[in-house]
Design goal:
six-stranded parallel β-sheet
């Protein structure tokens, strides 16, 4: 029988993104030894949510909408007060997790753990206002980078758990590369890749501008966009407007994204902000050269495959950097990532110690 009861509160929807992937990995890794209750205000009416609902080892609870703040906080209070959980584990992107941590603490939770994944909120003023209150209601604070720790926390009881990929799963495979490039119909093309949701943060508009400048210099350039999101139609329309649509593959989502890293020649990510981007770490585990904006956490520059440019640099400058300075040969980065603790096994081991109460507070 599971010995640890965990209430995992998801403050973001279950999507094909890095935050959800870590939530699901935690559940998958510890579902045999821990009793998980999942609480979300977003419901379970997509593919990921359905899988959670159909997992007989999990208990799924739908919280009221957050705009009904009193009801939302009351439901969390009741769950904690009557659930006898060993740990309340909250995932989110900012001190806005206060609205989950505070009612849990008020209900006398044994241990409140927050896992912050980003360095900016859609409500910056409110996040800043709530920061001290938020920190007073958290026992153990997980940050994915120093940038995130400084943004969300006050420096006490912070566990730095760097996002780490499964280096074996993302290892470069020449045979798979050839298969995927043939599948795409781009065997002999120069493939720029991007994996991420179509939202403001990922900055696809800038990416299209960069690709436009690159394609003028290299006609065999192609752009592979893996992901979905609210801005997808807008970016498709932009690609048509610029006459680039025939050179871009809006691939959608895939359950085996690791195979498509092999097909790419360069990953390009001009995000407006990032905590410690899991995609960037996966690309490095594959040995794929990656060019990122200077908005990424410092820890993201973990291997010789990682390069940075100022976000505000022109699309022309980005294109030149891709062509002139990128080493397009694959590197074996597994040992370098493991030495820095940026490995899935290390990440899960530390999270497990925290959930089981074996983590020594700072």
């Amino acid at each position: 029988m599971p010995s640890t009861k965990v209430l995992l509160i998801a403050t973001t929807p279950f999507l094909n993104d890095g935050l959800t992937k870590i939530e699901l990995d935690v559940i998958k890794c510890f579902r045999e030894e821990m009793d998980f209750t999942i609480a979300s205000r977003f419901g379970y009416d997509n593919e990921i949510g359905t899988k959670l609902l159909n997992d007989s080892r999990l208990h799924c609870v739908t919280l009221p909408p957050k705009k009904r703040l009193f009801s939302y906080r009351r439901e969390i209070y009741d769950l904690v007060a009557y659930g006898d959980y060993d740990v309340i584990y909250i995932h989110g992107n900012s001190p806005m997790m206060y609205f989950e941590a505070a009612p849990a603490k008020k209900a006398k939770a044994k241990c409140v753990v927050t896992h912050c994944h980003n360095s900016r909120s859609n409500f910056p003023r409110l996040s800043k206002f709530l920061k001290k209150r938020f920190n007073r209601n958290v026992d153990i604070k997980i940050a994915v980078s120093q940038l995130v720790a400084d943004y969300a926390y006050d420096g006490h009881n912070v566990a730095m758990i760097l996002n780490g990929p499964d280096t074996d799963a993302f290892h470069f495979d020449r045979k798979i590369r050839d298969e995927k490039r043939k599948e795409l119909g781009w065997e002999d093309q120069f493939i720029i890749g991007h994996v991420g949701r179509f939202n403001e943060q990922k900055n696809h508009r800038k990416l299209i501008e960069i690709f436009e400048a690159l394609h003028k210099k290299r006609e065999d350039a192609r752009l592979l966009l893996i992901g979905e999101g609210e801005l997808e139609k807008e970016i498709k329309d932009l690609s048509i407007e610029k006459g680039l649509s025939e050179y871009i593959n809006f691939f959608g989502v895939t359950q085996n994204v690791e195979t498509y890293y092999n097909a790419m020649d360069v990953m390009v990510m001009p995000s407006l902000h990032e905590g410690l981007c899991l995609v960037a770490m996966e690309a490095q585990a594959n040995g794929l050269p990656i060019l990122m904006a200077d908005t990424f956490a410092e820890e993201t520059m973990a291997t010789e495959s990682a390069y940075q440019l100022p976000l505000e640099a022109s699309a022309e400058t980005w294109a030149e950097e891709i062509l002139e300075k990128m080493d397009l040969s694959r590197k074996d980065n597994a040992s370098a990532l493991k030495e820095k603790g940026m490995d899935w096994t290390v990440m899960m081991k530390t999270i497990g110690e925290i959930l089981e109460g074996k983590y020594k507070k700072l």
